[in-house]
Amino acid sequence: MTSATTLRVVLVDDHQLIREGLRRAFDRAGDIEVVGEAASIAEALSALERLKPDVLVTDVRLPDGDGITLTTQVRAGNPTMGIVVLTMYAGDDQVFAALDAGASGFVGKDAPAEEVVAAARHAAANPRAFTARDLAGAMQRRMSAPAGPKLSPREREVLDLLVDGLAIAQIARRLYISESTAKTHVANIYEKLGAGNRAQAVMAAVRLGLVDDVKTR
Amino acid sequence: MWQIVTVAVLGLRVKSVFVPLVVRAGIILNFACVSVILKTTAGNNSSAAGGTTQFDRVTQTNILLAALLLLCVAALASLPLPSSVPPVIPALAETLTAAVILAGVTSGLLFLPYLTIPLFIAGLTAGLPAGMACAALASVTLIATIAATDTPGHPALNSNDTLIAWVFIFLAVPTVGAWIRRIRNEVAPDSEPAYADAHRLLSELHVVARQLSLGLDPRTLAAALAEDISAVVPQAQAVVLARSPGGRFVALAGDETPDEAETAIEDAWVGAHPVKREADGVHFTAIPVLMGERVVALVVVTTSVALDDASVRRCRAVIEQSGPRLASAMLFDDVRRLATTDERMRLAREIHDGIAQDLASVGYALDDIHRDSDPDVGQRVKSVRDQLRVMVADLRMSIFDLRAGVNDTIGLGTALSEHAQRIAGQSDLIVHVSMDESPKRLPVTVEVELLRIAQEAITNVRRHAKAGNLWLSVTVEPPRALISITDDGRGLKPGRPDSFGITGMRERARRIGAHLHVGPGPDRIGTLVEVGLGTEPTTIAPRPLPRATVTRGALTDPHGIPAYVPQQDSQTTRHGVAPVAEQEVTT
């Protein structure tokens, strides 16, 4: 619950100088109070339990785990707390990890302290609206990357025949390969699609758009 | 004097050959002396007549002869044998020859106890069954030789009882040996021989790696293999393929295989036996390179007529010979890559936890001071703060670079364009990316080196060039690749060409057999860094119109505003890269 008067913040970072710097920045803001600091996940969890702050500001790399896991854990129990992920790591993966974990904001450690303060304010007001610099760019990069399991051309052929309902022996004959080879291909397909049997493999293939829908009907 | 003795003893200890020989020789001489003394006293007692001296001389000669022959056997038996020979073989041989000598030579039977040595060794080294076999051999040989030579009145074996007693002794000795062997094996824990083996293998690997760093290069070995195949099958093109853990096949040597060969390749890999296919009059034969049961690589032979069975057999013979070497080289390459990756991760952690955090906290402190200071000082603090921000962003980038790499899902093109985007997002550089990447990929080890070279070149531009634009052009067409990085900055300063960065780039290029060119950019503006693999830069063939998927470009700047892009025609034609279907990318 966001207090009408002051924002209560807990800082989690294993570097004391970072915590001190941020604390000063928050103190200056006037309407924000740093109610607790923690240097590890264990400390953070007990501080959150005790203090019930409005906003959690956490580093990614911590001595006993990572801030992303902490974010997931906190978010699972508290949908309204603002969570700002602060990191020295660069790269889209970090941004998406924070987003997926349910963070409200993502700030690099090269950014001025004011940006952290601004992110904390935003997080308190909109805990489920994720903000980060270059989020749009990262999104676009992710869209252009290929996704899903990649089947080899031969595996595609075998999959098509599997979907058609052919038995292993028939597949082997159709493709002029030995039965054991066909079996290995099928096993590889199951593994790539995370399927345990033919029905699951067909389902997964349809879901991933690996086979034409028409064919399955 | 003592020193000499000590040195001699130490020397004997070190030379493991001498120990068994000295033991054997000692026993033989011992028995020779005892025999001579026994004979002399026996002769003196039995006859007071004048024949004594002659008898003694004959006996002594016989004893000497037997001793000499046995010494020869002992010397031969002491020679070290390769560990591949089972220990029972030398024991059997020694038993047989010694038994023949002992029974065949007059007075030889006085040395009968010598036979206990090979029997004991047989029991000790080869176990009870082998020891029993040796004992049986000794007994049979002895009895047969005595029967054949028919020497009546053998002093030692004048009754069957004595013979039977000796047979029992022969059976008892290897039993004792085998028993000691068992106790020794129980005492020594299993792990120690395992460690000893591991140490031996690692030492060998170390020596090999040091002496044959070139000889252990998978690409060189694969090229040699492909050449050997071409020699065996005339008018054939051979390609050596390896498979990455992600399941894609990459050419270690030779040109990429056409798509038609794809199914043959997969079937051969999965089935671990040669597979023949034909498509449009072109015949492909995929032959697995086996290491034991496991397929480690494939050789694809492309011919215009179907390969007959005899040719396939010849190819397999060639592959069988060089297969293990190639497999070891690939394994070694992988180990080296893992070690390098580990070290880079460690460095990244160190920078991340140390200097980067310290600088970030200084930045926060400056933010604090900035807000307290009057406008004039504030302006100066702000400029320091801005510089610091760039420095921390730089470190974040370095950490990212150290941790980043290519893997099975992220190829060279993707990794490089992501890197370029990051650079563009964090500096004032306008980055222009032109990407022409084939869906097929280079071996991961090669991609890693190319990525590092390009990263270093881009970092140099960002840090030193004071450039406004950076052009990154990537053409990957396995097994060839060409990457060029051009800027419009202040160019190379004298003394810079051999700075650390460039030395490192050269080393990386040499490692993968690529050529590196560093020089002034077009029209002597800025700097051009070019790294080419598989061919000279000007000889990369212009690709035919690539399919839509071949060209993957990206992206925009964080705010989605496209920047002005200068024409790049001059650059692309200079490299001989077809300008078709290139997608200009700007940030």
**Residue ranges of chain B: pLDDT <50 for 5 or more in a row?**
47-52, 537-587
Largest sheet of chain B: 6 strands, mixed
Tally of alpha and pi helices of chain B:
16
**In percent terms, what proportion of residues of chain A is strand?**
15-25%
Oligomer: heterodimer
Report how far apart the termini of chain A are.
Answer: 52 Å
E-strand count of chain A: 8
Global structural class of chain A: alpha/beta
- First-last Cα distance of chain B: 86 Å
How many helical elements of chain A?
Answer: 11
Major sheet summary line of chain A: 6 strands, parallel
Write down the overall geometry of chain A. elongated
Average pLDDT for all residues of chain A: 84
Helix-strand makeup class of chain B:
alpha+beta
Helix content of chain A: 40-55%
Sketch the topology of chain A as an H/E string, one letter per element: EHEHEEEHEHEHEHHHHHH
User: What portion of the residues of chain B fall into strands of 2 or more residues?
Assistant: 5-15%
Into which percent range does the helicity of residues of chain B fall? 55-70%
Explained architecture:
The complex is a heterodimer of chains A (217) and B (587). By secondary structure, chain A is α/β, with parallel strands linked by helices. In chain A, 53% of the residues lie in helices and 16% in strands. In chain A, helix 1 links the parallel strand 1 and strand 2. The longest helix of chain A is centred in the C-terminal third of the chain and has 15 residues. Chain A is elongated. With 587 residues, chain B is an alpha+beta fold. Chain B is elongated. Classes of the chains: A alpha/beta (217), B alpha+beta (587).
